[in-house]
Amino acid sequence: MQLFLSQVINGVGNGVVFATVALALVLIFRTTRVLNFAQGEMALFSAYISWKLTTFDLPVWVAIGISMAIAFVAGAVIERTLIRPMEGHSPLNVVIITLGLFLGLNALVQLIFGTDPQSMPSPFPKGSVSFIADTRVQKVTIGLMVVLLVECAALWLLLNRTTLGLKLRAVASNPDSARLHGIRAGSMLMFGWAISAAIGALAGSLVASERAALDASLMQVVLVYALAAAALGGFDSIWGAVVSGLVVGVADALTIQYVDALDGIEVVLPLGLILVVLVVMPNGLFGKRTVERV
Amino acid sequence: MLRSRKARIGASLLTLALLASACSSRDDDDAATGDEGSGGEDTESLIPTDHCATDPTEEIEGDVIKLVSSYPQSGQYAAYSEIARGWMAYFDKVNDEGGVQIGDRTFTIEYETADDQYNAAETAANIDRLVGPDGDGAFAVFSVVGTANNVAIRDTLHELCVPNLFAATGSPQWGNPDYPWMIGSTLTPYTIEAAAFAELLQEIKPDAKVAMLRQDDDFGDAYEAGFKMAIEGTDIELVEVQEYSPGTDPTPQVTSLANSGADAFLNGAALLPCPQALTAKEEAGWEAITWVSGTCLSKTLMGIAGEAGADAYGASNLKDPLNPDWDDDPAMQEYLETVQTYQPDGFDPENAVVGYGYTQAAIFIEALEQAEAPTRLAVMEAMYDLEVSDVGLLLPGVTIRTSPDDKFMGETVQLAQYEWTGPDARNHFVPQGDLIDYEGRTAEVTPEELINS
Fold first, then answer.
1. Does residue B403 lie in a domain region?
2. Number of neighbouring beta carbons within 10 Å of residue B259
3. Together in a domain, B143 and B282
């Protein structure tokens, strides 16, 4: 029982990481209807900026804050310069651009910051607190959980309780109708990219903190799990992303513990999950069903 | 809307397939076997030349020895590119000092490298291009990183009789007699590392219960098989083995190991998962005699583990630049001066892999000087007749010996234990006891199929 709980806690620890990245994926999807494969590498770049700033003796939270601000601007610039010109073309073009960004940003990170792994300080206190049945929870995990919940609540409020959020959703759902209502669709799409890049920056920096280190491969496997979480949750549900991130994390940890047949190839799990979800319930567990008018 | 969504989902699946293949470090290019190797045990020269597509007895034209290499310079494994910093610096120094002498002729060393991102298919393409279809592009291949990567090029190079020297992994496969045109490096064969840990346990905890974390590839296979062989007939028991994929956080695996009741931990992880495993062990409150693989004995990686790495054991045959005992050592000073002069930017010479690369170059220069003629055959023969000590950063007392029957170089190891004295201290591995000499015994401690694969 204690082992089971320990693995669940491990899973939650990893799951929080997957959820934060899934959240950025969902956010960009909800606001722009684009699946951004470069989300992980954008987050990696931001994590490196956070790390670099901490080497100048800036407190970690300040470093992450600055990195989020830089990412916000960079996200807007990417939308304006790389994504916008594809408007009106096949959505595949955008997918290919995000894949290009995925490869390009990873190479750029190595060129700028080097190829050695680096230690990343944590904004949370070290150590653990005891939990039921003799198990212990890392303070980092609790910290990440709190950040994640605050993040979700803020995003939910933004999207569902503000005029800005309404405009964002309107543009995502139907840009032409939104324009007819006087909404500046371009600005909204740009804002969507900017804010998800900022959320991604937070996610990347926290992943690096949780793992206590970062290198150029940090986000690649995380992205696969985050995509699984986003698919499971339904690409447009914020709470879905969070719950599914945790589910994927826990399922992964329990697979490692109890399913010997998948030893070393646990990544089959998220890939399998994506497949099953897409086939059985394409809208995920929490996604809205879209009704097509013929 | 619906159509575009379908298109997007299709694209997503395709991308995931791409991603999955990109993230996997495994390569299927293992099909190469040594069937057509000519063995050579009972022929006159150990090194068969009858099959050679080139003439290995042809002398080098001009005064340049051209070496080529392929290794990860970008991607997940790019940290290994620092090995080349070490050997490049050494060759540059040799060139500046007038070059290397073979017989009465003097040569300078020239090198050309390519990036393979640790992908064996790219290694093969790179080496094909650099060496050329007739073997005219290079005299020899030097320090290719990765087991699958070296396996991917060994057949071609064998047919061309182009030496593949100082393969930069500890795989026991480099002892395979079917491939006399290739030889490993001073990296300790993984199976000897495993045997050294078993021997340590025999001494300090003869009834140890061991839990092992290993990579899910041939590196992990060799490590596990070597350890199992080493504990045969002892009271040591391997109670659980967990595998992880490179690029993932092995914390759940370590939690599982921590709960196995084991009192010893064989941490066979490489790169970041190694310190992550040590941290996870500490978080789990697991008290265990810990061993880290040679791939983890780096300033960066152990630095990331910090206190969680305290007291971990490991083995090496090189002087550690972090150990203050070597501060006044002339060889260490020469090393630091050389790498800082010739490879000045952007890396840390205190990282052990740089010193490793530097030492391989130093040994190669010794071999060249011993060669009877500036030909591929003579240099290869010199590689099988090494008796080298006190070059590069080799520890005092370590002698690199090779012979036609023993291709392994790194068979003498020094046990060391990680001493952690504070986050800003010069933490390093402190040597423990005398050198352990496995000279000529790799084949004894290694399952035969691992060598002959």
1. yes
2. 18
3. no
